[in-house]
Amino acid sequence: MKSPEIVLSLNEIMFYFTRAAVGAGLSFGLAEDFGRSSIWIAASGLDPARITSKTLKSLDEAQSSLCASQTEIGAKTVLTPSGGKQLSALFAGPSVCDWILETKEVSDKTQHFVVEKVDHPFLIAAAVGALKSGNWEICWQDSGGTLCNVLTGQNGNWKTSLEGNEIFQQHSPADVSIKSAESSLFSSKKWIEKNTFSEKNSQDVLESGVPLYESWPIIHKLFFSLPGCFHRGVAQVWRRSRFGGYGLKTNCTKT
Amino acid sequence: MEDEKSETTHIVTKGMRSPEKVMRLARMGSSFQTRLSFMRSLTRRISKEKWRFEKLRFEVDEKGYGTSVYVVHTPERTYSLITFTNEVAPEQRTDRVVAEVWDATFNLFDGIPTEADIKRLSANTPKQEAGRFGPSELVLARANKSLRLFEHVASRLSEGKQPDIELLASVGYLMRTTAVYGSGKFGCADREKISNRSEMRGSFQVELITVYLFRWFTIELVEYVAKQRGGRKAVSLNPEISKFLGIGNATGLGMAPFLIKHPVLIHKWVLARETALSRVVALESHTPESLSLFSKFMFQATQHIAEWNVEDEQQTSRIIKTREDLKQLSNWFANEENINQPLIWERILRFAEANFSLEGQELTVSLLLESHGKLVDELADDMQTSTGIELEPSMSLNQLRELLQKSFNWALEIDFDDPEKQRRFWYYSEEKLEPRFGDRYADPGAEQEMPLAVARDVFLLNKKIKSVSDDISVGKFVQNHPEFRNIVRRVQTVVRFPYAEIRDNIVDAEMRPIDLLRFKLAFFGASKFDPKSELWTRITLFQGAPLPDQFVGNDSDEWAFPFCPDIVAA
Fold it and tell me: Which chain A residue has the Cα nearest residue B110?
């Protein structure tokens, strides 16, 4: 197996990934949510740089949008990107989490949320998983027509419907549906033999650190594109760039 | 694990000092250590659990350069201090964060290191931030000698003499740390790895275990160097002198942002102290024992403050006023009429509040707690938190507006349209490679501001809320205005924790960062604050604390307000 580019602690994952997201154009509050998603990915034993770098790059290169409108049609809430672009999962993930927290107490379990044209569907699941708010099923169809599911459970456990890394790497825009799931679903016949991630992964990561491979330089580059982010030990450079302050000057979403 | 919801029930009860009074920069910058300070709870735990200490390796040359491993065995685990000492050229010697070599570099290792671990660390630890570490390393740190005192002590001991006690008192340490990194920095173990361990209960325990072990190492090192020089003629330090030697520390702006970034934790620290104080002042009667203890600590504090001399003019005048305050307190206490009435502790506090400077008042608080260990010590176990800063999207914007009016009135009263009210800004300096405090209208870099200006952001949030319809949810509001997501969730969280927020404008033209540093360092248990500017200070850690072989009897916790031992150099 090839050697990692670097091994980081979870604290460093939060530090670098949050600031890389600000460097890519996110406000600090949304970037912190992205940092938490990255920790969730890392604590599951996965490489958060490999999984998130394309999404950050897509935002940095203005291929994805942070502008969307939200509508409610009966039990369905829909988040639609504005301006014809694909919607950044870094914006959509926190919106889904806010909806989950808002509807948590509602007894109507038919309520569901649909995010249209998300640039990286798995990052919606990562945002929901990092929220640690019970059982949720996140579904989308990949470009080949295969149905992809992620099921979050109690205590940070979660499952995917596909084997291997395929589900984490899908970067074709898709409509993602999020709905509440019964806790019994986690151990049901449909899910029992699926790819499972658990708290044990998290303990292992605390004992060994988070290895990051070939995508780390992209995070690293975005981190250093943020003014004010200098961290000794990574590089003795500091690049100035185009984003000012920490986000209080930006506003692009639609009501 | 602590039930996070239960934390929401904490409120400021009758008899406690209010957040409006306590969480002001001027008072925070007058803080003193108390028996709830983290160093004090650590030494109590060492004593109670009878931790064992062991020197596993000491491979240094006659000048004291080499590798050593000092170990502490707690009831359940073992931790090792691995130290590398080397020669530093005079032109390379600096305490600043830009330094690249230090007299000593060290790690706290989780367990006992193998030869391979030591070899790996020998290639990384001396490089500090430029090295890489792993989860087996809990702390990374470095220190420089007080050249003057180290050389003096080594020289005198080598001649069979004890050091000059006045010189020793004027410095207070053989080495001073210039950085102590924990919590996952540079690849070290995350706090989460150790947070459930009983010996890590409380704040900054792993960092302070490291400093405590290092203090022991510095004393053994100077004795070793003396022995190499003097041979059979050399003597060891008198144990009372050893005990009086602490570890110095130079602390700059790097520490200040922590207080803003961890509001719930700060609430827990202050809540513990204020709860302790309210318990003491609520005591209607007093015992001869508590009177005697108060008197004893008042004497120790008087001696301690008499020996506290600094170059900074402002701090010097504050120390002089504190000495006068202590004299007044002593006179009050000597009056039998005052002592023979009920509620003596409350009356002492009221007397201090009516007559003393802020430093005098906070010193009085420390003294009141010091004489009531059995009543307050258990509060130290709750000076930590697992509560994060969370958004409540279902809250209506109108409710959020009410929260701002109710709990952030202090911030809304500041006129941020006045340029002086946001003259300063916090940023990372490219040139100095450390957090800096800039002048927005004179220095470059304001666009690099760190998100720490809570009062200003609350002001802007309130202004924005006024401009939109308030019949929407907070979730909808932050979706439309993601730039406020950060400050909204902070507001929603900290309203449940009254001591969480510093109730001052930390970007005001008149703001003194040194106040933040002193507040935090006092909670660590630091003493002898020696401000070198408004931006950094020197302090002493563990001065007066028992060394590993001095935890005997019941007085091992009575090391507050250390003063110079009455020993004449032989």
Answer: A207
